[in-house]
């Protein structure tokens, strides 16, 4: 697929037309207050994996509504003092999978907390966390579940789970809460952006080819799922475009980016039709912290930089976290 979006020089200047709701901050403050009425109750149970270089804990904590959310905590073997922690959020349709697939960050000396994504995990890898909340009629997928009202929207629950995941990761005695990073690819990158705004004292954010950004452009530019789920929903629910746009505005990564308070390393791929580069640059250009970088992969689709971006993160993150 050849380049289909704006030229790179225009991407670097591009600004989203997404309208921020007047009560955006109040909405999220109340959401998190309601969630914190439930005890976090983070539990870390050692798991025998046969791995000798890491120690693995099966994690359960209370997310949105007090619902149990699963995760993995992977520590370098023999960790005796608190170490920086990387909290990872996962791509669309995937779950936490098996522990031996999460060795990168512990191999670099960090604690690695992987959050399962509620209701997902039957796509490219398995998950363990149900979503006990139903929704109105929705297009197959997750992007239109509860789209009638921001209070019922699926990602209100996921983003709240993610904030609580950071709190759970920080509650372990061998993690250094002052040196916490949020990372993720695609959907995970969009979640990391939200966490970067909703958790005020992160040390770093690394959203790779992030999903859930610049909804007005994304939902009209690409025919690929997941963004196409919105168009398919509106194709049958005629006349609900304004209602859907209003809901999505509360979850737009552009607005979270405008509240980013930690150094950030983004990535974008110029042939990415799943998360078009203009939508990624919309978030990057809006990102509030002055210390920000974006790696651009000019002939890649949604795989983005893949292992090359991981290598870039491995070079960048220790300097930010002091690990």
Descriptive overview:
The protein has about 325 residues and is α/β, with parallel strands linked by helices. Helices cover about 35% and strands about 20% of the residues. The protein has a nine-stranded mixed β-sheet with strand order 1-2-3-5-4-6-7-8-9, sandwiched between helices. A hairpin with a 6-residue loop joins strand 1 and strand 2 (about 55-60). Helix 4 crosses helix 5. The model has no long low-confidence stretch (mean pLDDT about 95).
Describe the structure in brief:
By secondary structure, the chain is an alpha/beta fold.
Average pLDDT score: 96
The major beta sheet can be summarized as:
9 strands, mixed
Cα Rg: 19 Å
**Fraction of residues in β-strands:** 15-25%
Separation, N- and C-terminal Cα atoms: 39 Å
Low-confidence stretches: none
Percent of residues in helices:
25-40%
Number of helices: 11
Number of strands: 9
Q: Main sheet: which strands, in order across? A: 1-2-3-5-4-6-7-8-9
- In N-to-C order, the SSE pattern is HHEEEEHEHEHEHHHHEHEH
| Category by helix and strand content | alpha/beta
Shape: globular
Key traits:
9-stranded mixed beta sheet, alpha/beta, 323 residues, single chain, globular, 33% helix
Strands, helices and their partners?
Blueprint: H1 8-11, H2 24-35, E1 43-47, E2 54-62, E3 68-76, E4 83-89, H3 104-107, E5 111-115, H4 154-171, E6 175-185, H5 187-198, E7 204-208, H6 215-221, H7 228-236, H8 241-249, H9 253-257, E8 264-269, H10 277-286, E9 292-297, H11 307-321
Parallel strand pairs: 4-5, 4-6, 6-7, 7-8, 8-9
Antiparallel strand pairs: 1-2, 2-3, 3-5
Helix pairs in contact: 4-5
């Amino acid at each position: 697929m050849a380049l289909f979006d704006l030229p790179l020089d225009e991407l670097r200047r591009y600004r989203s037309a997404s309208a921020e709701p007047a009560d955006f901050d109040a909405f999220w403050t109340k959401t998190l207050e309601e969630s914190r009425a439930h005890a976090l109750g983070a539990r870390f149970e050692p798991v025998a994996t046969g791995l000798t270089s890491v120690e693995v804990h099966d994690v359960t904590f209370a997310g949105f509504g007090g619902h149990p959310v699963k995760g993995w905590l992977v520590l370098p073997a023999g960790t005796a003092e608190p170490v920086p922690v990387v909290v990872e959020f996962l791509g669309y349709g995937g779950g936490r999978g098996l522990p031996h697939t999460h060795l990168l960050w512990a191999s670099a000396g960090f604690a690695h907390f992987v959050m399962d994504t509620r209701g997902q995990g039957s796509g490219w890898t398995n998950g363990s966390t149900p979503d006990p909340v139903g929704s109105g009629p929705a297009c197959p997928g997750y992007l239109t579940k509860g789209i009638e009202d921001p209070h019922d929207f699926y990602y209100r629950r996921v983003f709240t789970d993610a904030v609580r995941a950071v709190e759970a990761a920080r509650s372990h005695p061998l993690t250094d809460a002052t040196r916490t990073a949020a990372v993720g690819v695609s959907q995970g990158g969009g979640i990391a952006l939200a966490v970067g705004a909703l958790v005020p004292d992160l040390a770093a954010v690394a959203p790779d080819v992030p999903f859930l950004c610049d909804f007005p452009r994304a939902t009209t530019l690409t025919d690929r799922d997941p963004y196409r789920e919105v168009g398919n929903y509106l194709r049958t629910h005629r006349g609900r475009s304004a209602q859907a746009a209003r809901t999505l505005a509360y979850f737009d990564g552009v607005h979270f980016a405008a509240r980013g308070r930690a150094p950030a390393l983004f990535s974008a791929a110029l042939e990415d039709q799943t998360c078009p580069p203009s939508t990624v640059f919309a978030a990057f250009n809006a990102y509030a912290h002055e210390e920000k970088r974006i790696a651009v992969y000019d002939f890649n689709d949604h795989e983005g930089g893949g292992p090359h971006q991981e290598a870039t993160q491995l070079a960048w993150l220790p300097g930010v976290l002091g690990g």
